[in-house]
UniProtKB/TrEMBL annotation:
Signal peptide: none annotated. This is Aldo/keto reductase. The lineage of its organism: Bacteria, Pseudomonadati, Pseudomonadota, Gammaproteobacteria, Alteromonadales. It holds the Pfam family Aldo_ket_red. It comes from Thalassomonas actiniarum. InterPro entries: AKR2_Oxidoreductase, NAD(P)_OxRdtase_dom_sf, NADP_OxRdtase_dom, TAT_signal. Residues 56-303 form the NADP-dependent oxidoreductase domain.
């Protein structure tokens, strides 16, 4: 397959939107249903390089912050095993998440997956020099040769840290750089940074109820050729509380959904401008439900509108 760079991706995106032609289901701009081939993973394309990325990743906020508790570490190891078995690659963390990076590194070593995944972590400090140390510390904690994606966490001291990240990327020490926000905060500032700096990724909150990013940030990401990671896909647990005791709509069968987690996640990753969603869980069974969203048919635009209407009606 010919590798696609950011410029080619943007041109192809513009042509697709202008003609109304949908691209392949494996492209970032596709929301067409996949064939009902359960062995086929739903992937998206990273615009900067053309690299394919499974559209469900894994968050680690709270769930992997277990310290030296050996029982909890074993549970994390089983969760990560289920993640990989389900086809996942992108693992997201941060120095802010306590012992999560260390525990991820431990689990990767136990599973012999140190360099067989997509590592995404963050720099989170007000000081540039401390940020550079954090980056190297993260690499050691994960036990990897190179961090795939390094992000500025919640835009903290973003000017200083993007300088460092750009330099480290140029030196080949990290592959991709990006910025993050959550809870719908600081969208205007994120938009300005997207307009003026060359980013590979942004991370923001997007789910069936939190859709503020649709108005400006997602279209801008498409225009600029920036991949988008969706955090808080379940509003922590609020979406599950909303549907507690409710059965899935009968129409969910059309997109091969058997659990609410699949339903919520397929809504997110079928958006043409979302590259990956990063649900977090501390239960193996829930991880298996999450990863099931990578397979089967995906909702098109019309079906997504129906899903939205169904959820808003609950």
């Amino acid at each position: 397959m010919i590798k696609q760079n950011r410029r080619d991706f943007i041109k192809l995106s513009a042509a697709s939107l202008a003609t109304g032609i949908c691209l392949s289901p494996l492209s970032l701009l596709s929301a067409k249903p996949l064939p009902a081939d359960k062995s086929r993973l739903f992937t998206k394309v990273i615009p900067a390089t053309g690299e394919k990325l499974p559209a469900i990743g894994m968050g680690s906020w709270m769930t992997f912050n277990v310290g030296q508790d050996q029982g909890a570490r074993q549970n994390c190891q089983q969760i990560l095993r289920a993640f990989f078995n389900g086809g996942g690659t992108l693992i997201d963390s941060s120095p802010m998440y306590g012992s999560s990076e260390e525990v991820i590194g431990y689990c990767l070593e136990q599973l012999n997956r140190q360099n067989k995944h997509f590592s995404a972590t963050k720099v989170w400090t007000p000081f540039q020099s401390s940020g550079v140390r954090q980056i190297h510390d993260s690499q050691q904690l994960w036990g990897v040769d190179k961090i795939d994606l390094m992000q500025v966490h919640n835009l903290l001291s973003w000017e200083k840290h993007l300088e460092s990240l750009e330099q480290l990327k140029q030196e080949g020490q990290i592959k991709y750089i990006g910025i993050t926000t959550s809870h719908g905060r600081r969208h205007e500032q994120m938009e300005k940074i997207m307009q003026t700096r060359e980013l590979d990724f942004i991370q923001l909150t997007y789910n069936v109820l939190d859709r503020e990013a649709e108005s400006r940030l997602l279209p801008l990401a498409r225009e600029k050729g920036i991949a988008v990671i969706a955090n808080r896909p379940f509003q922590r647990k609020a979406l599950f509380h909303r549907v507690q005791g409710k059965t899935l709509p009968a129409s969910a069968q059309a997109i091969d959904c058997h659990h609410w987690a699949q339903y919520f996640l397929k809504f997110i990753i079928s958006h043409p401008d979302i590259s990956c969603a990063i649900p977090a869980t501390s239960q193996v069974a829930h991880m298996q439900e999450n990863m099931a969203a990578l397979r089967g048919a995906m909702p098109d635009e019309k079906f997504r509108a129906k899903m939205l209407n169904d959820i808003q009606g609950i």
